[in-house]
Amino acid sequence: MTRFSMKDPFVLRLYKIRNVKKYDEFLELLEEVLDEAAERIYSSLNKNSVVSTYKALCESAETNIKDIDELKKHIILLQKKLEDDISCRIVDHLDAKGFVSSHDPNNKGHVDILVQNQSKKFKWIGEAKLYDGNRYHQKGLYQLINDYSTGGKFESGGVLIYLNKTQYSVKDVMQSWDTHLKELAKDPKNRLENFTSEFDEHTSSIFYSQHIHHKSGDPYRIRHCCLDIRIDF
């Protein structure tokens, strides 16, 4: 019979995740596991094969599909497939560590990543997109803010940027995104009242923002994260 010991750090963390009582603790544990998931994706050989396949399929489509509108539709489908693949890898890792997580569930719309504790009292909603400039990611941000979130006490969000192309560094991408958000926040119509942001002290690939959620009137926290999945760069 297998015996489990709380002295084992893996067992201890699993216990904490499954029995978390405070939302701050839920977020702390979640972000630790999200960092692990990102590291697994960075170092995974499967990442290379998935991105290589995506790249090859795009090149094939550009060669063989002559109709411009059909080509655009095909590329969008390929992009969605790559986005889904990376998001599913993150969800699988979160599940394995004890969270209740899912990809594309219906939470006032089809969100990319939904993470909850065992009682489903605590919630984190992640909106993920392949990198395509600030205006494109702005759409994802407002899907999160306007469509999927309520701004409730036990809820926060995440914007995940999957960097599969561009010559910009991760730091450049994230600083540009942060600056873009600060510019948006100057206009009250953009629903980013009292916007503040702060970069993670350990990495330039993550920063945290907070603003007053237009629905609840309470502070809403968002974790902005860039995952570099580029190959041959």
Automatic annotation (TrEMBL):
Top-level taxon of origin: Bacteria
Protein name (record): Restriction endonuclease
Native organism: Acinetobacter populi
